[in-house]
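stuck on this one:
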Amino acid sequence: MIKLNAMIKDIFYNACHKLIRINLLLVVLLIGTLSSCVEDIVVYRTETKEMMGDYLERRSDEFSEFNRMLDTTKVMGLLKAYGEYTCFAPTNDALFAFYHSQGRTSLNDYPLDTIKMMVYNHIIKGDILTSDLFNYGRLPDQSMNERYITIDTVHVGSSIVLKVNKTASLLEKDQLVNNGVVHVISEVLNPSQLTSIEAIAKDSTFSLFYQALQLTRLTDKLLLTKDDSYKWENYKSLLTPPFTQGGGSVDELPLSRKFGFTLLMESDATYRDKYGITTIEQLKAKAKEIYDQVYPEDAGITDITNPRNSFNRFIAYHMINKQLSYSKFINDYDTQHMIKTYDMYEYIETMCPNTLMEVRIVRSVPGANFINMVNSTDDAVQIVKSNSDNDATNGVYHEIDKILAYDINVSTHMSSIRIRMDAASFFPELTNNNMRGNGKVQSWVFPKGYIDGLTCTETTRFCYLNSFGGYLDYEGDEVYLKGVYDFSVKTPPIPAGTYEIRFGYQPTGGRGVAQLYWDSIPCGIPLDLRMNADNPMIGYVQPSSTNLDDPYGYENDKMMRNRGYMKGPSSYQDFIDMGWGYGLKQSARNNIHCVRKILGIYTFDKPGKHSFTVKAVIDGQFMFDFLEFIPVELIQSEGID
């Protein structure tokens, strides 16, 4: 009964939190208007009985042309119904200027499909995003046209102006209606219809890098956009019976299967001013200087289309097969689960064979996205925020402030640190289809073949739960399996070395028993995921100041290691009390519901990917939170984070 009441409470919380936030916001702003000392007050409006469609029709002097588009596409009916919508409404002047820029005179000059696309570009369905929820760069929700909308800040004199999709000014914001919010904008949102490589070709900022992409033929790897063969309607049986998670989310199918790419690029100006590089030959020489130290055995490869060639490696290391906006490198995974006194790390596979990129949040230093920080933040590569989140149909590209390379220092660094990888980071599909890090409590079930890096049997149901505060998950999310599962996943590339490998999970009574394999070799006896850490077979004792013999739990750590287990890390927590005994804001180290299983010690003679396989022994849900790889020489000095 306690668990059920907690679930009901949480479902109620999820349903009401936006309304509570909006009402509080209105009260605060009303109080603010009573002060004659405050200038430039933004007026927030609420029309508790007026739907968005009615609001737009009532202001026909500003929106008659947009209303005509809504009527033509029958979207107006949607905006007059209950639901949650965010609308960036262009004024009449904005639309007529857009027609003129395209050599047209009226809406009659456009086919219906184009009008529908134009309307969908301006509406987000399923969320109410007031300006207090705007984050720099891409918004977490996509438009109805499945494109991202970006928010940027521009300094105009002493004022800060918000820009939408880099060019449209926000004329009025937070016009609250019964089913959402309207933001009035000065220009039509017309996202690029170019692919990543087409967009870069037209951007003169990166002409040298684009030339290198062409010469290495790495452009051929940036062509995929969408898997048109995927039809979600063909897999409705996976939703029967419907499965509801503890947070109130019901498993759903992904509506599409999109591919995505990210490019981090030095500008022509950076090459010239910082490195004296103005030609392709000079860039080739720089690449050879860097990569011949890391891969001396390949120094004689002169064919720049060969993936082992230094110039090819140099360019490919700038490319990622995930669509990563500025915030999706790491910030969007820095949920309330993460304790903000600990630095945070994300490891990203690049398109240079068998290489990783480290992205770091340094809590003591402002900013984010410190890429390949070896010694200090000064040597880290950073994204130039003023030229980030450049949009394309199948990706995004960013300018960076210095040369990005898997040089000898980065290579040495990667092989001499603990690497903790969230399970969701293994699967680009979760990022490319806006699941991971979207800020919502959602869960998905995937048809067989949807995830490229996964092989499984027909009886395996592979699922993903996005960040939910009631679960004690690293970065808040988890991969889980249902059914009589038998699956294998390819890891991202791990540097050469000898590592202790650990599997992080959250045990509950609903889990089963599974046999784990590393590179097809069994990892000891089957793992019982139903046993909490205080089970005598694991031996957890909670660290406590009242335990005078072992107040910090270090002796207990040794005993648990002898049995093949470790406590959870101290760097994350749960933050919503669900009444399940987890303990509100209790770190994973101090909780019996978080365990690390030591899979064993393994030596890799070269960098590369490996297989992690799980087979059900006793039915029950299998939960996969993270994997850790720690060089054996660091085990004795490792912290508790």
Notes: Residues 2-33 form the longest helix (32 residues). Confidence is low (pLDDT under 50) at residues 1-48. Residues 388 and 398 are 4 Å apart (CA to CA).
